[in-house]
Amino acid sequence: MTTLELQKIANEVRIGIVSAVHAAKAGHPGGSLSAADIFTYLYFEEMNIDPKDPKKADRDRFVLSKGHTAPGLYSVLAEKGYFPKEDLLTLRHLGSYLQGHPDMKHIPGVDMSSGSLGQGISAAVGMALSAKLYQENYRVYTLLGDGEIQEGQVWEAAMFAGSRKLDNLVVIVDNNGLQIDGAVEEVCSPYPIDKKFEAFNFHVINVADGNDFVQLRAAFEEARGVTGMPVAIIAKTIKGKGVSFMENQVGWHGKAPNDEEYAVAMEDLKKAGEALCQK
């Protein structure tokens, strides 16, 4: 896919995110929007997957370790064709299969239930180890938040992955700089993130703009060439990316826009979509 095609899809993913969270009157838009381009690249360019056969044995696996950004995952799954896009508007509603956190038992395309921070990467490491033990060729991808990596379990998983040389594992950190209580460096600084993963025997790729598809493509292509060690992609992103009043605002970590805010957000994304269509 071209960069322009990916940008158009990512804009649709953002529309799905904001629409779902608004309909739910709850959820986590900020981190879903910051990772929208990463979700889009993974599902439309990088991973070996098939919406018509969500459980195919040789599919690549994805684990959303920062499970609260489920609106981002659900929106890209719907865009890819795993389930109808209109179902996004049932997010968090009583009886809906689209719960506030990913549920592998009921949602097509979800490989692992997640939500308790720090645990997703451990599951991903287990999947990668399983592929090695059974000589399977699938790759495993997991997306973490930069606030999430304050969890000790993340580093236990990283230590194991590095020691077992799991070169079929790609850990992506959505480094948007903000968590629920403020700036990550002020709450409990995880920096330097790259040096920490290097210390656990990861090949580290720093992406200066994780909302840029040219840079994301270069990072994932580099990751594919790495052998003998797992990869960590540290992607610097903008929380709330694409919605003017949400960008870099910590207050939009976990709340839904009201009707007036929703209208402004939709106008922002509509204009962005129109601008992309004119390119």
Automatic annotation (TrEMBL):
Residues 7-264 form the Transketolase N-terminal domain. It comes from the Bacteria. This is Transketolase. Keywords: Thiamine pyrophosphate. Gene3D superfamilies: 3.40.50.970. It holds the Pfam family Transketolase_N. Coiled coil: none annotated. Its cofactor is thiamine diphosphate. Belongs to the transketolase family.
